[in-house]
Design a protein that fits this description.
About 70% of the residues lie in helices and about 0% in strands. By secondary structure, it is an all-alpha fold. It has a single domain, classed as Farnesyl Diphosphate Synthase. It has a two-stranded antiparallel sheet with strand order 1-2.
Length: about 300
Protein backbone atom coordinates (compact mmCIF):
# COMPACT_ATOMS: atom_id res chain seq x y z
CA UNK A 1 0.00 0.00 0.00
CA UNK A 2 1.38 3.40 -0.97
CA UNK A 3 2.16 5.87 1.78
CA UNK A 4 0.66 9.35 1.78
CA UNK A 5 4.07 10.88 1.07
CA UNK A 6 4.43 8.80 -2.09
CA UNK A 7 0.89 9.71 -3.11
CA UNK A 8 1.56 13.41 -2.57
CA UNK A 9 4.68 13.22 -4.72
CA UNK A 10 2.86 11.34 -7.47
CA UNK A 11 -0.06 13.79 -7.42
CA UNK A 12 2.26 16.80 -7.42
CA UNK A 13 4.28 15.46 -10.34
CA UNK A 14 1.14 14.56 -12.24
CA UNK A 15 -0.54 17.96 -11.98
CA UNK A 16 2.69 19.85 -12.67
CA UNK A 17 3.10 17.87 -15.87
CA UNK A 18 -0.46 18.83 -16.86
CA UNK A 19 0.13 22.47 -15.99
CA UNK A 20 3.35 22.57 -18.00
CA UNK A 21 1.49 21.12 -20.98
CA UNK A 22 -1.35 23.66 -20.88
CA UNK A 23 0.65 26.80 -20.10
CA UNK A 24 1.96 28.50 -23.25
CA UNK A 25 5.76 28.43 -23.60
CA UNK A 26 7.73 31.57 -22.73
CA UNK A 27 8.95 31.74 -26.31
CA UNK A 28 5.40 32.31 -27.62
CA UNK A 29 4.22 35.90 -28.01
CA UNK A 30 3.46 37.74 -25.73
CA UNK A 31 6.59 36.31 -24.16
CA UNK A 32 6.65 38.42 -20.99
CA UNK A 33 3.06 37.56 -20.11
CA UNK A 34 3.64 33.86 -20.69
CA UNK A 35 6.81 34.01 -18.58
CA UNK A 36 4.80 35.60 -15.75
CA UNK A 37 2.14 32.88 -16.04
CA UNK A 38 4.70 30.10 -15.81
CA UNK A 39 6.59 31.85 -12.98
CA UNK A 40 3.38 32.10 -10.95
CA UNK A 41 2.10 28.58 -11.57
CA UNK A 42 5.18 26.36 -11.83
CA UNK A 43 7.14 27.76 -8.87
CA UNK A 44 7.40 25.88 -5.56
CA UNK A 45 4.09 24.77 -4.10
CA UNK A 46 2.44 21.94 -2.19
CA UNK A 47 -0.41 21.57 -4.75
CA UNK A 48 -2.91 21.02 -1.95
CA UNK A 49 -6.03 21.62 -4.03
CA UNK A 50 -5.02 19.18 -6.78
CA UNK A 51 -4.15 16.71 -3.99
CA UNK A 52 -7.76 16.94 -2.81
CA UNK A 53 -8.93 16.24 -6.36
CA UNK A 54 -6.74 13.16 -6.68
CA UNK A 55 -7.40 11.93 -3.11
CA UNK A 56 -11.14 12.09 -3.78
CA UNK A 57 -10.69 10.22 -7.04
CA UNK A 58 -8.69 7.46 -5.35
CA UNK A 59 -11.21 7.26 -2.52
CA UNK A 60 -14.02 6.77 -5.05
CA UNK A 61 -12.02 4.51 -7.40
CA UNK A 62 -12.07 7.05 -10.23
CA UNK A 63 -9.21 6.78 -12.77
CA UNK A 64 -6.88 9.72 -12.25
CA UNK A 65 -6.92 10.61 -15.93
CA UNK A 66 -10.62 11.44 -15.52
CA UNK A 67 -9.82 14.21 -13.01
CA UNK A 68 -6.56 15.64 -14.41
CA UNK A 69 -8.56 18.53 -15.88
CA UNK A 70 -10.11 19.34 -12.51
CA UNK A 71 -6.74 19.18 -10.74
CA UNK A 72 -5.13 21.45 -13.32
CA UNK A 73 -8.03 23.92 -13.39
CA UNK A 74 -8.30 24.34 -9.62
CA UNK A 75 -4.56 25.01 -9.33
CA UNK A 76 -4.75 27.61 -12.10
CA UNK A 77 -7.56 29.39 -10.24
CA UNK A 78 -5.57 29.24 -7.01
CA UNK A 79 -2.47 30.63 -8.75
CA UNK A 80 -4.41 33.50 -10.31
CA UNK A 81 -5.90 34.39 -6.94
CA UNK A 82 -2.46 34.52 -5.31
CA UNK A 83 -1.07 36.78 -8.05
CA UNK A 84 -3.95 39.22 -7.57
CA UNK A 85 -4.01 38.97 -3.75
CA UNK A 86 -0.32 39.92 -3.61
CA UNK A 87 -0.83 43.18 -5.53
CA UNK A 88 -0.38 46.53 -3.75
CA UNK A 89 -4.13 47.21 -4.07
CA UNK A 90 -4.85 43.99 -2.18
CA UNK A 91 -2.47 42.44 0.39
CA UNK A 92 0.69 44.20 -0.91
CA UNK A 93 3.04 41.23 -0.35
CA UNK A 94 6.60 41.07 -1.63
CA UNK A 95 7.20 37.34 -1.07
CA UNK A 96 5.26 34.27 -2.13
CA UNK A 97 6.59 30.75 -1.56
CA UNK A 98 10.00 32.16 -0.73
CA UNK A 99 10.33 34.14 -3.99
CA UNK A 100 9.41 37.65 -5.13
CA UNK A 101 5.71 37.91 -5.91
CA UNK A 102 4.68 38.19 -9.55
CA UNK A 103 4.34 41.97 -9.55
CA UNK A 104 7.80 42.26 -7.97
CA UNK A 105 9.43 39.83 -10.40
CA UNK A 106 7.71 41.46 -13.40
CA UNK A 107 5.48 44.52 -12.89
CA UNK A 108 1.96 45.29 -11.69
CA UNK A 109 0.33 45.46 -15.12
CA UNK A 110 1.85 42.14 -16.18
CA UNK A 111 0.76 40.56 -12.88
CA UNK A 112 -2.84 41.68 -13.42
CA UNK A 113 -2.83 40.26 -16.95
CA UNK A 114 -1.19 37.04 -15.77
CA UNK A 115 -3.92 36.53 -13.18
CA UNK A 116 -6.67 37.35 -15.68
CA UNK A 117 -5.33 34.92 -18.26
CA UNK A 118 -4.73 32.10 -15.75
CA UNK A 119 -8.35 32.33 -14.66
CA UNK A 120 -9.53 32.00 -18.26
CA UNK A 121 -7.12 29.13 -18.91
CA UNK A 122 -8.65 27.15 -16.03
CA UNK A 123 -12.02 27.04 -17.77
CA UNK A 124 -10.41 26.36 -21.14
CA UNK A 125 -8.81 23.26 -19.62
CA UNK A 126 -12.15 22.02 -18.28
CA UNK A 127 -13.84 22.69 -21.62
CA UNK A 128 -11.23 21.02 -23.82
CA UNK A 129 -9.25 18.46 -21.80
CA UNK A 130 -9.40 15.07 -23.51
CA UNK A 131 -9.10 13.02 -20.34
CA UNK A 132 -12.63 13.71 -19.10
CA UNK A 133 -15.20 11.00 -19.84
CA UNK A 134 -17.55 11.54 -22.77
CA UNK A 135 -20.53 12.71 -20.70
CA UNK A 136 -20.77 16.46 -21.36
CA UNK A 137 -23.00 16.90 -18.30
CA UNK A 138 -20.04 15.93 -16.14
CA UNK A 139 -17.86 18.55 -17.84
CA UNK A 140 -20.50 21.25 -17.38
CA UNK A 141 -20.96 20.29 -13.72
CA UNK A 142 -17.23 20.71 -13.06
CA UNK A 143 -17.21 24.11 -14.79
CA UNK A 144 -20.23 25.25 -12.76
CA UNK A 145 -18.72 24.09 -9.45
CA UNK A 146 -15.41 25.86 -10.09
CA UNK A 147 -17.12 29.04 -11.33
CA UNK A 148 -19.27 29.29 -8.20
CA UNK A 149 -16.32 28.63 -5.89
CA UNK A 150 -14.27 31.32 -7.65
CA UNK A 151 -16.84 34.11 -7.76
CA UNK A 152 -18.71 36.33 -5.33
CA UNK A 153 -20.26 33.29 -3.60
CA UNK A 154 -16.76 31.93 -3.01
CA UNK A 155 -13.16 33.06 -3.25
CA UNK A 156 -13.64 36.56 -4.73
CA UNK A 157 -16.44 37.31 -2.30
CA UNK A 158 -14.30 36.13 0.60
CA UNK A 159 -11.43 38.36 -0.49
CA UNK A 160 -13.79 41.34 -0.69
CA UNK A 161 -15.02 40.67 2.86
CA UNK A 162 -11.43 40.20 4.03
CA UNK A 163 -10.33 43.55 2.59
CA UNK A 164 -13.38 45.31 4.05
CA UNK A 165 -12.55 43.86 7.48
CA UNK A 166 -9.01 45.26 7.64
CA UNK A 167 -8.60 47.20 10.87
CA UNK A 168 -12.06 46.17 12.13
CA UNK A 169 -12.98 43.75 14.89
CA UNK A 170 -15.04 40.82 13.62
CA UNK A 171 -16.90 38.16 15.55
CA UNK A 172 -15.81 34.53 15.23
CA UNK A 173 -18.83 33.67 13.01
CA UNK A 174 -17.88 36.56 10.71
CA UNK A 175 -14.28 35.36 10.53
CA UNK A 176 -15.43 31.84 9.75
CA UNK A 177 -17.65 33.18 6.98
CA UNK A 178 -14.67 34.96 5.39
CA UNK A 179 -12.53 31.83 5.72
CA UNK A 180 -15.25 29.58 4.29
CA UNK A 181 -15.53 31.77 1.19
CA UNK A 182 -11.95 32.91 0.63
CA UNK A 183 -10.22 29.57 1.23
CA UNK A 184 -12.76 26.86 1.97
CA UNK A 185 -14.82 27.24 -1.20
CA UNK A 186 -11.97 26.21 -3.51
CA UNK A 187 -11.03 23.21 -1.36
CA UNK A 188 -14.66 22.12 -1.28
CA UNK A 189 -14.83 22.58 -5.07
CA UNK A 190 -11.73 20.39 -5.51
CA UNK A 191 -13.52 17.54 -3.78
CA UNK A 192 -16.87 18.03 -5.51
CA UNK A 193 -15.40 18.32 -9.01
CA UNK A 194 -13.69 14.97 -8.56
CA UNK A 195 -16.83 13.43 -7.05
CA UNK A 196 -18.81 14.41 -10.13
CA UNK A 197 -16.48 12.15 -12.09
CA UNK A 198 -17.85 9.10 -10.24
CA UNK A 199 -20.75 7.53 -12.14
CA UNK A 200 -23.57 6.35 -9.91
CA UNK A 201 -22.43 8.16 -6.77
CA UNK A 202 -25.37 8.22 -4.36
CA UNK A 203 -26.73 11.66 -3.37
CA UNK A 204 -26.02 10.86 0.29
CA UNK A 205 -22.36 10.21 -0.51
CA UNK A 206 -22.10 13.50 -2.41
CA UNK A 207 -23.64 15.31 0.57
CA UNK A 208 -21.03 13.75 2.90
CA UNK A 209 -18.20 14.83 0.62
CA UNK A 210 -19.68 18.33 0.47
CA UNK A 211 -19.80 18.51 4.28
CA UNK A 212 -16.29 17.10 4.58
CA UNK A 213 -15.00 19.75 2.17
CA UNK A 214 -16.68 22.52 4.14
CA UNK A 215 -15.16 21.35 7.43
CA UNK A 216 -11.66 20.76 6.11
CA UNK A 217 -11.61 24.00 4.12
CA UNK A 218 -12.42 26.02 7.23
CA UNK A 219 -9.94 24.09 9.37
CA UNK A 220 -7.21 24.65 6.78
CA UNK A 221 -7.57 28.44 6.98
CA UNK A 222 -7.72 28.53 10.79
CA UNK A 223 -4.51 26.49 10.74
CA UNK A 224 -3.01 29.07 8.36
CA UNK A 225 -3.98 31.81 10.83
CA UNK A 226 -2.07 29.93 13.53
CA UNK A 227 0.99 29.50 11.30
CA UNK A 228 1.01 33.23 10.56
CA UNK A 229 1.79 33.69 14.25
CA UNK A 230 4.01 30.75 15.15
CA UNK A 231 5.18 29.35 11.81
CA UNK A 232 8.69 29.41 10.35
CA UNK A 233 9.04 32.01 7.57
CA UNK A 234 11.62 29.81 5.84
CA UNK A 235 9.04 27.02 5.65
CA UNK A 236 5.86 28.93 4.90
CA UNK A 237 7.58 31.10 2.27
CA UNK A 238 6.38 34.50 3.50
CA UNK A 239 6.99 36.72 6.53
CA UNK A 240 5.43 35.53 9.78
CA UNK A 241 3.00 38.02 11.32
CA UNK A 242 1.94 39.63 8.04
CA UNK A 243 -1.76 39.39 8.96
CA UNK A 244 -1.10 40.98 12.35
CA UNK A 245 0.94 43.77 10.75
CA UNK A 246 -2.01 44.67 8.50
CA UNK A 247 -4.47 44.44 11.43
CA UNK A 248 -6.35 41.66 9.65
CA UNK A 249 -8.97 39.89 11.79
CA UNK A 250 -7.88 36.27 12.21
CA UNK A 251 -9.15 33.45 14.40
CA UNK A 252 -6.25 33.63 16.91
CA UNK A 253 -6.45 37.43 17.04
CA UNK A 254 -10.06 37.24 18.22
CA UNK A 255 -10.18 33.99 20.19
CA UNK A 256 -6.51 33.41 21.09
CA UNK A 257 -4.12 30.67 20.00
CA UNK A 258 -5.43 27.93 22.35
CA UNK A 259 -8.99 28.42 21.10
CA UNK A 260 -7.77 28.44 17.49
CA UNK A 261 -5.93 25.14 18.00
CA UNK A 262 -9.04 23.68 19.64
CA UNK A 263 -11.16 24.79 16.69
CA UNK A 264 -8.86 23.04 14.21
CA UNK A 265 -9.08 19.84 16.26
CA UNK A 266 -12.87 20.14 16.49
CA UNK A 267 -13.26 20.63 12.74
CA UNK A 268 -10.77 17.85 12.01
CA UNK A 269 -12.67 15.44 14.24
CA UNK A 270 -15.99 16.34 12.64
CA UNK A 271 -14.54 15.88 9.14
CA UNK A 272 -13.18 12.46 10.12
CA UNK A 273 -16.58 11.44 11.47
CA UNK A 274 -18.23 12.39 8.17
CA UNK A 275 -15.82 10.17 6.24
CA UNK A 276 -16.15 7.31 8.73
CA UNK A 277 -19.94 7.37 8.37
CA UNK A 278 -19.48 6.76 4.63
CA UNK A 279 -16.93 3.97 5.13
CA UNK A 280 -13.95 6.13 4.13
CA UNK A 281 -12.18 6.34 7.50
CA UNK A 282 -8.89 4.97 6.11
CA UNK A 283 -9.21 6.47 2.65
CA UNK A 284 -6.64 8.66 0.85
CA UNK A 285 -8.97 11.59 1.54
CA UNK A 286 -8.85 10.91 5.30
CA UNK A 287 -5.06 10.52 5.24
CA UNK A 288 -4.70 13.83 3.38
CA UNK A 289 -6.84 15.66 5.93
CA UNK A 290 -4.84 14.15 8.81
CA UNK A 291 -1.57 15.34 7.28
CA UNK A 292 -2.84 18.73 6.22
CA UNK A 293 -4.21 19.76 9.60
CA UNK A 294 -1.06 18.74 11.49
CA UNK A 295 1.32 20.59 9.18
CA UNK A 296 3.77 23.27 10.32
CA UNK A 297 4.03 25.08 6.97
Amino acid sequence: MRTLSSRLEQWRSRVESELDRWLPPETTMPQRLHAAQRYSVLGPGKRIRPAFVYATAETLDIPLEHVDAAACAVELIHAYSLVHDDLPAMDDDDLRRGRPTCHKAFDEATAILAGDSLQVLAFQVLARHGGLPGDDRMRVSMIAILAEASGTAGMAGGQALDLAAEGRKLTLPEIEQVHALKTGALIRASILMAAHGAPGLAPGQLDRLDEFGRLVGLAFQVQDDILDIEGDAALIGKPVGSDLARCMPTYPAVAGLPAARDRVLELHSAAGAVLAAAGWAESPLALLADWLLARRH
